[in-house]
Amino acid sequence: MTLISNHMPTAELQALDAAHHMHPFTAGAELAKKGARVITRADGVFLTDSDGERILDGMAGLWCVNVGYGRKELAEVAARQMSELPYYNTFFQTTHVPAIALASKLAELCPGDLNHVFFAGSGSEANDTNLRMVRHYWAAKGHPEKNIVISRKNAYHGSTLGGASLGGMGGMHAQGGLPIPNIHHINQPNWWSEGGDMSPEEFGLARARELEQAINELGEHRVAAFIAEPIQGAGGVIVPPSTYWPEIQRICDAYDILLIADEVICGFGRTGNWFGSQTYDIRPDIITIAKGLSSGYQPIGGSVVSDEVASVIDNAGDFNHGYTYSGHPVAAAVALENLRLLEEEKIVETAATEIAPYLHEQWKQLEDHPLIGEAKIVGLMGSVAMTPHKESRAAFASPVGTVGYRARERCFANNLVMRHVGDRMIICPPLVITRAEVDELMARAVKSLDETYAGLKADGLLVPAS
Ligand code: PXG
């Protein structure tokens, strides 16, 4: 067997990668020509690649490494749990200590009466669980026809058939026969791109009221639930206008439907509170969790459900659903230790009270940059919209994402991971980022935006779409 080590030349690793490894959300043939960047180790907020470059990870991996890289406590807990009980399932009337301990801790941390956890291996799986659970819930209450879930365009809820159907990504729906039936999408609260002449507040209300219109059109007796991320993450960190969530909550209270808050990104300190639902005063019946739950050190997700939902499900016989790795003991033990770090080291609190205000001040200043229209940030997740003409909030004449891709390439070259979604740039750094590292992040971001702007100017691409 070939020994594949960190010390192999980068080109050889890239060639093997291109030959045998299929990447998510990637045009494989294009990547093969260029070669993937090989990440070999990480510590704090910095990644190291196979050429020894140190890269500031402005995305916390994939929105998940909340405690930062290199926490030995998590490795030690994993090793201990693997020696003691590496695997057992939670089917067939069995359980184990890590699943019990993690579920209890989550019941304590999660808002309201969200006291019951159904574990999954990822956020996608958890949203599949939610889809089946809300339909089963209404069927158990004698309303099997109440099975439509309302979601939003440009939402991201995962990549499984259920998750991608709940999500509102056109590119995903275009492949593989999605969405599955009985999922209905309304418009997103993206004022910058879609608000027209309305004020953000008017627009937030108008977009929220689309939920009420949809319920009335479809019939309240047909609608099981509404699902949404408190702040759309993968959609481009779309921060909703202040009027949006209160109106959504009013509608969910007025009609007999369940509210699912997908906290996969917003959970575990990202928005300045433990959960995005607290930041926006949302009272969900179910939340989806993953990512920051284990800071990405182990794959784990789950659905945390209210006393009411759990009681109906628990009294309706077998819920014929579950995953081999539901409540996996190693993943659960690592998640529990991660929650201990977040809580005892006051990582959530410090990020909210000391780091977020410092970052916000600098991030908002990006609105003075010639390429940037709006700069939005809540807690430690932010985005900027790039535009050729600020006053009219114009999009570029070039295909959507052309400018974003160029900006991301400049960030890559400047050893900063800052992602693009269309022509928005987004950040979501580990919650443990320090003030000095914020300065470094901002310096690299500004340099990259300056270079992008100069490049667009040189290539005649600063042209508004007509
Ligand atoms: N819900 C939300 C809100 C997410 O952001 C999922 C569910 C699915 O979780 P899993 O663990 O199954 O991936 C996510 C995942 C991106 C990107 O490009 C975002 C995610 C995943 C992959 C890529 O920003 N979010």
Describe this structure in words.
A seven-stranded mixed sheet has the order 4-10-9-8-7-5-6, with helices on both faces. The chain is 41% helix and 15% strand. Strand 7, helix 11 (244-254) and strand 8 (258-262) form a beta-alpha-beta unit. It has helices spanning 10-20, 28-34, 60-63, 72-84, 97-109, 123-140, 161-166, 170-173, 191-194, 200-218, 244-254, 276-279, 307-314, 329-344, 347-364, 402-413, 435-458, and strands spanning 39-43, 46-49, 54-57, 114-120, 148-152, 183-186, 223-228, 258-262, 286-289, 301-306, 372-378, 381-386, 416-417, 419-421, 424-427. It starts with 9 loop residues before the first helix and ends in an 8-residue tail after the last helix. It has two domains: 37-70 and 346-458, Alpha-Beta Complex (Aspartate Aminotransferase, domain 1); 73-344, 3-Layer(aba) Sandwich (Aspartate Aminotransferase, domain 2), CATH 3.40.640. It is globular, with a radius of gyration of 22 Å. It is built from 17 helices and 15 strands. With 466 residues, it is α/β, with parallel strands linked by helices. Bound molecules: 3-[O-phosphonopyridoxyl]--amino-benzoic acid. 3-[O-phosphonopyridoxyl]--amino-benzoic acid binds at residues 62, 122-124, 127, 156-158, 163, 229, 233-234, 262, 264-265, 288, 290, 301.
Which helices and strands, and how do they pair?
Blueprint: H1 10-20, H2 28-34, E1 39-43, E2 46-49, E3 54-57, H3 60-63, H4 72-84, H5 97-109, E4 114-120, H6 123-140, E5 148-152, H7 161-166, H8 170-173, E6 183-186, H9 191-194, H10 200-218, E7 223-228, H11 244-254, E8 258-262, H12 276-279, E9 286-289, E10 301-306, H13 307-314, H14 329-344, H15 347-364, E11 372-378, E12 381-386, H16 402-413, E13 416-417, E14 419-421, E15 424-427, H17 435-458
Parallel strand pairs: 3-13, 5-6, 5-7, 7-8, 8-9
Antiparallel strand pairs: 1-2, 2-3, 4-10, 9-10, 11-12, 12-15, 14-15
Helix pairs in contact: 1-2, 4-14, 5-14, 10-11, 15-17, 16-17
Bound molecules: 3-[O-phosphonopyridoxyl]--amino-benzoic acid.
Residues 62, 122-124, 127, 156-158, 163, 229, 233-234, 262, 264-265, 288, 290, 301 line the site of 3-[O-phosphonopyridoxyl]--amino-benzoic acid (PXG).
